[in-house]
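Newbie here. two chains, one complex. Structure please?
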Amino acid sequence: MGRTIRVAVDAMGGDNAPFEIVKGAVEAVKESPEIQVLLVGKEAVIRKELAAYTYPKEQISVVNATEEISCEEAPVVAVKKKKDSSIVVALNLVKEKKADAFVSAGSTGAVLVGGLTIVKRIRGVERTPLAPLIPTETGVSLLIDCGANVDAKPSQLVQFAKMGSIYMKHVVGVENPRVALVNIGMEEEKGNLLVKSTYPLLKECKDINFTGFIEAREIPHGAADVVVCDAFVGNVILKLYEGLAATLVSKIKEGLKSTAISTIGAAMAKPALKKTLKSFDTAEYGGAPMLGLNGLVVKTHGSAKSVEVKNSIKQCVTFVEQEIETKIRENLTTEEPAETEQ
Amino acid sequence: MGRTIRVAVDAMGGDNAPFEIVKGAVEAVKESPEIQVLLVGKEAVIRKELAAYTYPKEQISVVNATEEISCEEAPVVAVKKKKDSSIVVALNLVKEKKADAFVSAGSTGAVLVGGLTIVKRIRGVERTPLAPLIPTETGVSLLIDCGANVDAKPSQLVQFAKMGSIYMKHVVGVENPRVALVNIGMEEEKGNLLVKSTYPLLKECKDINFTGFIEAREIPHGAADVVVCDAFVGNVILKLYEGLAATLVSKIKEGLKSTAISTIGAAMAKPALKKTLKSFDTAEYGGAPMLGLNGLVVKTHGSAKSVEVKNSIKQCVTFVEQEIETKIRENLTTEEPAETEQ
């Protein structure tokens, strides 16, 4: 057993809070003795939920926070005003090094704003991307950036490529991850101003395995391990992924029930089909890390059930153990003269 | 029977030319007595293909063109130099009003460049978008723009919204089509500079049914009839649609064959499943029109088989009969003082 990993968890965030959040935390500590969860939120509510489970008591503690930030609130204002909200209290635990990581299924905007203003960027990091893992035919790819900050600059995309590469190598375990830039064609002269300016910069990077452009069609086939794009495009890709998969699955279910014979056939094929579709369920892959901060912040789906909460908490262990933060710090500051930093 | 619709067809373009193209043309004229196809390309080759079919001879003629433009060639150069290519010859037929429309499965770049430089924009139209129909849970939506010109301006997106609205109403038959702008959130303050500047302009348009922003997740659910975006984003959406659908279908097939019982079940469910998946096949919906030109130009998939070629040719009939070109001309010039135009 290595060091203890302390994960602050937003007990009040998400559509299924506090029930699924607390349940996920209990499941995580049961499976991983090295995890220490700090459930942040209304203490009485959390304690009541916890009372329903049997678990190693020393692995879960409760940190009281009397306020909540809803998804409808303007993030910047909410984070500034609600000092005693579960998100702000938890992020302060990370800032003060009382927690190694923070996991929330709450307001994405508030988590991103809070991460940036409370935990703060690593020196030298221009922008902190939100980078979910998305399922592909061959495994998973990291889609970076899917955050809220759009209109990115080429230098920021280059940093995304580097941070994404570090994450895929050390957290997911992909050797020499293939890094590609999303574009609408494969030729160097294609694309918008942003990708045309970014391409030559990425080509010059010696520390990543840049494979060139990737068209959106190739993303589900797993043609790159790190898929780099502006947050606007990343958000469109991520949400279309979710929407299209849901639509196709419901269409298929409907089709399978359309005749008596197909219904019987469907019943026979169901277990195999279920397993297949599960491999394409984004919930299986835990949360999306916000990279480049002085600490780890992970955003899970608002609709997260306990399994996703559990996976998001467990994912923090590898991140912390592999010292991703240090690796990003070292890697993104090599461009400056070596003697001024580190 | 109304007027004859003359459609120039690029017999040499696409992965399956000339076989599937000529076959599609034959199928189109057999089904629609009002269609006159002009097969453009190497005459001897086309005549040899045609010899295999029985069809109303007066409905198909051949126009010789000795050159071909491949997908690997730089479009601007190819269109300029290859004056006797099937694409350039066919586009000149449209320009000279010897054809009402042009259908090609060949180089998208050459078709777009040729459309713009030979057939030319309607006066007042700033940019001519490529607008495919994409399948949704409830029917089809028009995705506008998926062309090659990126970094669009707000005024161009407004024109896309208007042209798309006209197309969906008069060609597809959707009453009061819902027009939405692709964004990464629903709130007015979200998004990149482009969508934030476009939103207020669309809100002011009295002649379209603008319903606000649409997140990519909602596109497959059919939440809008006209989905407006910059060509970069449109291209990403279109290609991800194709890639993800293909991946999911292959995953499902693989899953269905994973056990003996599921294989039997799958065989029973196959016809129903096939029907369902067919409704999500972009090939069913013919080609993508390039809107805003002085004539109709339709681009079909490079991989088009005869059914898609046939559908693309037949789609020209409604476009011409409904006088879409005139409607676009009238609608997009109403912003100028009425007396200066028309």
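Moderator note: The CA atoms of residues 127 and 224 of chain B lie 22 Å apart. The two ends of chain B are 30 Å apart (CA to CA). Thread marked as resolved.
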